[in-house]
Every structure is written in C-alpha cells, then in structure tokens.
Write a sequence for this structure.
C-alpha cells in the first residue's frame, strides 16, 4: 500500500546534506524499511520521477497548509476560498520533467479536490480553532548521546499541544497497525515538540485522507509518546548511525519493493558496488 | 558478606517561563546473589528511570507567560527603598506591560529570549536585512501567539520565522533560511 506522508519537499537540503549531518523521521523510516533504498536515496541521491500519487499528496499538503495558516492568521479559510489555492498549485507545482499521468490528469485532479473537500467538511478540527503551530521546523541536538541532531517539520499542532500529521493513502488504513507503522515519525515529532516547548504533547492524531472512489477520512487519535517509545526511537537512531558509519547497506526484499523507486538499481546491486 | 547496591536516578527538565523541575528516586537493596551485580544494576536503573519518567510528567504549577512581569516591572522602576521615585516612571496603572527593547533600555531581562540563540539571530537578521520595523514583528508575535517575540518558545519562534519569511523574506530565503 502506498502512503504519502504529506511532508513538504525537503529534498532541497537533503541533497546538500550527508546522512550523518542530521537525522529525520523520513531518514529513519527509510533506513528501517530498506538500507539499500536508503543508500540510493540519501547517499547516492539518485533522482526519482514524481509519481501522480506523490504529486497529489504534495498538492493536498499545500492546500491543508494554507487552510491551517489562514486559521492561524484569523483569515477566511472556508472551502470556497481554497479552490483557487488548489488550482494555482496544481499548475505551478508541476515538475519540469513532467508527470506520467497516463492520460488521467483531469481524473486525478478531480479526485484530489474531492478528497480535500471531503476532508474540510468532515474534519474534527473546528474552523474557528486557532492552531498552536503550523508547518514548524523543529530541531533537537543529541550531542550528549553522540548522535547527530534530529530535525523535522510538524504539519500542525492543535490547541493544547495535539500533534497532527496528514497523510494521503489509496487504501483505508488498518486501525490496528497504524500506530505501529507511524511510530518512528510520531515519536520524532513528540521528541521535537517537547524540546521546542519544554512540555509533553497532549496527544497525537493521524488524519488519513483516503483516495477511494468515494473519498474517506480516517482520524486516528493516539496517546502521547510513552517512555518505552522514546527508548525505541533512541535505539533506532543509534542503529542508524552505527549502520551508516559501517556503510551497512543491504536490501530488505518485501512487499514494499513493488512500489520502490529503486527496484531496477536494487536488482543490479552487487555487494560493495555503488 | 552482604553486598549492598545503591541506585539513584535524577532528571531535571526545562519548563516554560525559564523554570524547570527535577525529581530523583533512590533505592538501596541487598543482593542475595553476588554473581549478578550487573543484571541487578540494570534492573534497578530501568525501574528508577521508569518511576522518574512517569512522575516527572506531572509538572504541577508552571509559571504563565505573565508570571513575575508585573512585579518585575514595578521593581525595576522603583527607587530601591520601596517607594516610587515620584517621577511617574513606575507602572502605576497596575497593568502588565510588554516592552519592546529598542536598545535604549536594559533591565537585565531585555536580552533574554526563550527560543534558541540560532532562532533569535535569524529573527534579528530577517528584521535587519528586510528593514522591518521591530514593532511590526512584535505586533505579529502578539497577534499570532498572544505575547512578544522574546517570550516565544522554540516552536512558536519557528512559526514566526516562517511567517516573516513568507511576508518579507525574499532576501533571506535564498540564504540560510529557517528550514534547516
């Protein structure tokens, strides 16, 4: 199942940064998914084509960011005012090398807007609720632990310290697995939030926008990060650093290979070869 | 011979308003099996850390944004002997006032920012490079967060930086921006 985390494009500084310059949720997750994929993405920095699903995720993110920013600024943020934002981004954000829409761009565009419209009608966040933070860049150093700093961008923090992450997905998420599958990312955000504010988050929420024929919204409320989750994250960060230092890049074949950008390179990979 | 194992775990955490709290737990136990000192030490450490981590999440009283400001302002303008100096310099109307430090006043608090030094430097750089009136930034900070930019924590300062970059930051956006 392909899930797009609606994070802003951070490749701009990823391309300039080595894998040990800083840690991030996406770096840790990619490392956990497949070390060879991590190598192609963050060490070799092989270019990848923008898929329709990724593009739709980015546009949805842009619109939701505007929705949150406008509520934060006390500006009008109803559905009608967001349509021009959506249309403008759809045109302006198309990559220079194009997207292989397979003749279905209009269909995808309609689907993306329907999904947004559905979200804005069904969201548990009241229009009048002023966010605590929108799209904030946060960082924590781990010098004492001998690790690189952890950096991240949090989509939204609701009043009272509830961390929200938006995701688009093609299939309805499995309620039993969703906390586990997103633990690295949410634990990173919890650590960063605590560092930035000096107090723990009150909870977390995953807002999955599901791209089914009839769009769906699945909101998963989650508890604040537990101490054992913090320890697991630390263990993963240590493993990451040790693995990168040892250049321990091996493939992890599995179901995720079916939508991996580096499938061909992986099949051609030989131990020790770049 | 009885072997005693004494463990202590302490943690100190920062809280808003330049405050912090700390908690420590100590335990003293007698080992029945002297061959497993390392295992027992690990168990005690885990036990103490869990106990401290669980309890320290209860922060109790945390100073609010205006805590100490009212009295602090009054004291800073008093003549030191407990009475006003009579020149109207004190905050006689009883209202808490946030002051924008314009460089002409130093009361010992004016240079303290709640965000990181890196964020403070970047906000100042944005103001300087884009020739923004500091009062305007102060106003944005009040509008968005309810208090001045010096009181912003790191999360809020990051939000302010994004906002300044979007509104004013054409020059700085190409340099070392906030998204680092």
């Amino acid at each position: 199942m392909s899930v797009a985390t609606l994070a802003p494009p951070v490749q701009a500084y990823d391309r300039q940064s080595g894998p040990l310059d800083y840690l991030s949720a996406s770096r840790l997750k990619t490392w956990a998914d497949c070390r060879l994929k991590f190598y192609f993405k963050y060490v070799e920095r092989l270019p990848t084509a923008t898929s329709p699903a990724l593009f739709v995720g980015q546009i949805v993110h842009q619109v939701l960011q505007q929705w949150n920013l406008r509520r934060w600024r006390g500006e009008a943020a109803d559905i009608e005012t967001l349509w021009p934002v959506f249309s403008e981004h759809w045109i302006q954000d198309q990559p220079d090398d194009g997207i292989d829409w397979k003749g279905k761009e209009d269909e995808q565009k309609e689907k993306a807007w329907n999904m947004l419209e559905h979200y804005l009608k069904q969201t548990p966040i009241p229009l009048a609720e002023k966010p605590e933070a929108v799209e904030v860049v946060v960082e924590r150093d781990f010098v004492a632990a001998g690790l690189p700093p952890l950096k991240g961008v949090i989509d939204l923090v609701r009043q009272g310290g509830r961390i929200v992450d938006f995701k688009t997905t093609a299939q309805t998420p499995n309620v039993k697995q969703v906390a586990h599958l997103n633990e690295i990312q949410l634990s990173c955000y919890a650590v960063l939030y605590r560092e930035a504010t000096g107090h723990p988050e009150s909870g977390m929420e995953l807002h999955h926008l599901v791209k089914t024929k009839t769009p769906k919204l699945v909101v998963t409320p989650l508890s604040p990060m537990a101490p054992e989750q913090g320890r697991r994250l630390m263990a993963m960060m240590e493993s990451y650093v040790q693995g990168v230092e040892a250049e321990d890049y091996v493939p992890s074949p599995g179901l995720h290979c079916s939508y991996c950008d580096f499938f061909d390179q992986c099949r051609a990979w030989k131990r020790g070869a770049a | 011979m009885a072997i005693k194992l004494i463990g202590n775990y302490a943690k100190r955490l920062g809280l808003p308003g330049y405050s912090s709290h700390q908690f420590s737990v100590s335990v003293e136990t007698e080992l029945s099996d002297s061959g497993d000192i390392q295992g027992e030490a690990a168990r005690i450490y885990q036990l103490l850390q869990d106990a401290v981590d669980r309890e320290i999440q209860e922060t109790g009283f945390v100073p609010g944004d205006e805590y100490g400001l009212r009295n602090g302002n009054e004291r800073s303008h008093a003549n030191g002997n407990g009475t006003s100096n009579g020149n109207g310099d004190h905050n006689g109307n009883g209202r808490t006032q946030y002051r924008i430090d314009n460089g002409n006043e130093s009361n010992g608090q004016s240079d303290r920012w709640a965000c990181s030094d890196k964020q403070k430097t970047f906000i100042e750089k944005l103001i300087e490079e884009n020739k923004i009136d500091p009062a305007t930034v102060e106003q944005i900070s009040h509008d968005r967060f309810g208090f001045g930019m010096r009181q912003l924590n790191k999360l809020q300062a990051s939000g302010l930086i994004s906002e300044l970059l979007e509104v004013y930051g054409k020059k700085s956006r190409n340099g070392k921006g906030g998204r680092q």
Remarks:
- DSSP finds ten helices and seven strands in chain A.
- Residues 183 and 229 of chain A are 8 Å apart (CA to CA).
- Residues 5-13 of chain A have pLDDT under 50 and may be disordered.
- The interface with chain B takes residues 10, 13, 72-74, 132-139, 151, 153, 157, 193, 195-200, 227 of chain A (CB under 8 Å).
